[in-house]
């Protein structure tokens, strides 16, 4: 019994550890966004999960009226599945729940392009994208 | 074996003879059952009862074919020869009734005979127009390979008129039976159950010998022929339903927020309008890169509703000029769904008018068969 519990504790600890770090594909995207962010602002010193969270939860009035926030479709809990306005399920945004998130640059860019425009009425900056992914990597 | 164990051999009921043989009675009550089911499912029940409707219709057709064969080689009173219909005979019959007496008819009287022929004919026509409708409108059954939607729609209109005329004829039939039972003092409904009527005092018509084995042979051959043909013809690709699978890029890109609407659901103009405005797609940005947009637009144009002859393609081909991007705004879509309450569409289980697949289990392949309609239980009113 003790053995099992210890093993379980160890397993869950290592699982948490594994999730908290981005996988190689996600790291590659973060690196790309970091390079771009540095090009915009030479003082760039790394992404902030806190800023990513703020972006994710913020209410916006500058985008399209039906999509005031990222949470409109993704819900306020990144570990929960979301739903499109047409009623189709969206997998969770947290990589602990969906490990293949943010691993195909073309897909990630396509959705940032669409969703930032829908919610904010503008494109997201590389800094915002990096912050967002950093936040989701920790979830 | 003769079907007429008639005349006077049973000592207990010497005065009652078999008029309607067993097969005629089974035919009659089987037809009552099949027509009742067909009428109930056709007039009253929702379209997803179509299978039961078609099966009852097929039964009606089989019974009619049997009756025609039996009218030719069945027992005495089953034979068409025993109830000829002519204007002169009808006039005479009316005159007889008017005179207060009239001849007693062991088999069908003049009006009864006329009704039998009328019902056999109209039910045969109903069966035929039903199969044409099934083929042209629903793209199912043995005639789907050859029947256009337009032909199917015409058949459907005739089918519906014939169905109403049949109801009127059945009402007249019941009235006639009631009247004749009263007039002749003989319960005709019971006669159709027991098969017996009081023996006439005068001479009986010479008996014809039924040929049940010949009938069975003919019917078996017909059944084998029709069954084989039906199975083979039903397997042929339906007319106006090309075997086009969804383009994989389309399925992925246009299926991420909602059902990837099959291209047959809208006309080329609608698809152009949708693809030209993806950045403002129903309140969202759904834009794609130029090359993907062009690729999908070309594929949609090549497979739009103009290239299909399904009911859905015919219905939704014409866009609503006030809302040209929506399938659900077309006049036909609104008409087809007028009986579905708004609350059902708004329920969480359905998720809006655009969620075709919530209620149409075959929406993804663009078929929209009536049998596949099922409103989620939680959303039902």
Task: Write structural notes for this entry.
The complex is a heterodimer of chains A (139) and B (381). Chain A is mainly α. Chain A has a single domain, classed as Cytochrome Bc1 Complex, Chain D, domain 2 (Orthogonal Bundle), CATH 1.10.760.10. Helices cover 55% and strands 3% of the residues of chain A. Chain A has six helices and two strands; from the N terminus they run ααααββαα. Chain A has helices at 2-20, 24-40, 49-57, 71-74, 105-120, 126-137; strands at 82-83, 89-90. A two-stranded antiparallel sheet of chain A has the order 1-2. In chain A, strand 1 and strand 2 (89-90) form a beta hairpin. In chain A, helix 2 (24-40) packs antiparallel against helix 6 and helix 3 packs across helix 6. Chain A is globular. The relative contact order of chain A is 0.20. Chain B is mostly helical. Chain B folds into two domains: 14-199 and 208-234, Up-down Bundle (Fumarate Reductase Cytochrome B subunit), CATH 1.20.950; 248-379, no CATH class. Chain B has 14 helices and two strands. Mean pLDDT of chain B is 92; it is low at 1-14. Chains A and B meet through helix 5 of A and loops of B.
Summarize the structure.
Chain A has 139 residues and is an all-alpha fold.
The biggest sheet of chain B, with number of strands, parallel, antiparallel or mixed sense and barrel status, is: 2 strands, antiparallel
Structure classification of chain B:
mainly alpha
Supply the number of helical segments of chain B.
14
CATH superfamily of the largest domain in chain B: Transmembrane di-heme cytochromes, Chain C
Distance between the termini of chain A: 31 Å
Biggest sheet descriptor of chain A: 2 strands, antiparallel
Which two chains have the most extensive interface, and how many residues on each? Answer: A-B, 15 and 20 residues
Report mean pLDDT of chain A, rounded to a whole number. 88
pLDDT under 50 segments of chain A (min length 5)? 8-19
- How many discrete domains of chain A? 1
Principal-axis shape of chain B: elongated
């Amino acid at each position: 019994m003790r053995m099992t519990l210890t093993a379980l504790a160890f397993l869950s600890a290592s699982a948490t550890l594994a999730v908290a770090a981005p996988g190689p594909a996600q790291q590659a995207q973060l690196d790309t966004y970091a390079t771009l962010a540095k090009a915009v602002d030479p003082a760039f010193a790394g992404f902030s999960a806190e800023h990513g969270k703020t972006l994710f939860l913020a209410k916006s009035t500058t985008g399209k009226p039906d999509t005031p926030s990222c949470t409109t479709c993704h819900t306020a809990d990144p570990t929960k599945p979301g739903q499109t306005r047409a009623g189709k399920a969206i997998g969770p945004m947290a990589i602990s729940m969906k490990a293949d998130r943010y691993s195909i640059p073309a897909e990630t860019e396509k959705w940032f392009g669409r969703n930032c425009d829908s919610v904010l009425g503008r494109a997201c900056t590389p800094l915002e994208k990096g912050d967002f992914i950093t936040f989701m990597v920790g979830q | 074996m003769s079907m007429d164990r008639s005349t006077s051999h049973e000592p207990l009921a010497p005065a009652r003879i078999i008029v309607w043989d067993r097969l005629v009675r089974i035919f009659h009550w089987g037809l009552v059952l099949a027509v009742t089911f067909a009428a109930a499912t056709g007039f009253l029940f929702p379209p997803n009862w179509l299978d039961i409707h078609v099966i009852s219709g097929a039964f009606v057709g089989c019974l009619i074919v049997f009756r025609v064969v039996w009218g030719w080689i069945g027992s005495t009173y089953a034979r068409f020869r025993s109830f000829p219909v002519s204007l002169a005979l009808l006039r005479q019959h009316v005159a007889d009734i008017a005179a207060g007496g009239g001849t007693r008819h062991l088999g069908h009287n003049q009006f009864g005979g006329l009704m039998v022929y009328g019902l056999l004919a109209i039910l045969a026509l109903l069966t035929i127009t039903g199969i044409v409708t099934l083929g042209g409108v629903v793209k199912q059954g043995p005639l789907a390979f050859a029947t256009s939607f337009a032909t199917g729609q015409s058949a459907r209109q005739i089918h519906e008129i014939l169905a109403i005329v049949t109801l009127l004829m059945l009402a007249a039939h019941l009235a006639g039976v009631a009247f004749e039972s009263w007039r002749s003092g003989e319960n005709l409904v019971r006669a159709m159950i027991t098969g017996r009527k009081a023996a006439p005092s005068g001479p009986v018509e010479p008996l014809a010998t039924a040929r049940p084995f010949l009938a069975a042979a003919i019917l078996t051959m017909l059944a084998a022929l029709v069954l084989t043909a039906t199975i083979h013809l039903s397997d042929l690709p339906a007319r106006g339903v090309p075997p086009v699978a969804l383009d994989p890029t389309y399925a992925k890109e246009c299926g991420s927020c909602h059902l990837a609407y099959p291209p047959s659901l809208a006309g080329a103009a609608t698809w152009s309008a949708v693809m030209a405005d993806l950045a403002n797609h129903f309140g969202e940005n759904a834009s794609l890169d130029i090359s993907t947009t062009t690729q999908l637009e070309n594929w949609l144009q090549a497979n739009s509703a103009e290239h299909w002859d399904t009911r859905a393609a015919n219905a939704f081909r014409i866009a609503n000029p006030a809302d040209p991007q929506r399938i659900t705004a077309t006049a036909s879509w609104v008409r087809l769904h007028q009986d579905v309450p708004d609350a059902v569409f708004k329920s969480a289980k359905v998720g809006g008018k655009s969620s075709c697949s919530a209620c149409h289990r075959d929406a993804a392949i663009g078929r929209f068969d009536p049998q596949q309609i099922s409103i989620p239980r939680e959303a039902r009113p």
